[in-house]
Amino acid sequence: MPNHQTTRISRLEDRFNVASFGVLGVQLNPDTLTVDEKQKLKSFIASYKSERCLLQYGTFYRLEDGFSDNYWSWITVDSEKNIAKLIVGLKIFKPVQGSKIIKLKGLDDNKNYRIKCDSIEFCIYASGETLRNYGLMLPQNYQGNERHNNARYMVDFSTIVFDIKAKV
Questions:
Q1: Do 84 and 8 share a domain, yes or no?
Q2: Which neighbouring-strand residues pair with 161?
Q3: For the whole model, what pTM was predicted?
Q4: Burial class (CB in 10 A: 0-12, 13-18, 19+), 98
Q5: Looking at the structure, do residues 29 and 104 belong to the same domain, yes or no?
Q6: Most confident option among 63-67, 106-110, 134-138
Q7: What is the chain's percent helix, strand, coil content, to nearest 5?
Q8: How many helices (H) and strands (E) does the chain have?
């Protein structure tokens, strides 16, 4: 669905990912949605409701602003520092760009965390101290010559979301 001002097309999933960290407006006309898009939107809203407490009341950190780099990233962390949600956005896809490292804030240095992203079959474990000092290296983006399950296929103005949970 193209933006009414720029005619740029962005995926409904990316619109939702960004909106879930803010006021939850995806800026579209629901009358123009297909049945499939309406079903996706319903599932996105149900997902948001299950994480509403974290997204609305967690501590929000802007990690990368998107002005000095081609990426932007935000994280919101619950008050006990047990659960967090990280979103990373890509402005313009550039082939053969290096891997991105994002240093996380707000996590407990003394806790170990599982960082998971279901959409790309990505899961690692690291301490809060490691994530703060050394960061999280994003999986390599698609380079045009390979396709495998762990490749991250980000296009212009796309997002990827990571769920972060402390190990008990």
A1: no
A2: 87
A3: 0.85
A4: exposed
A5: no
A6: 106-110
A7: 25, 30, 45
A8: 3, 8
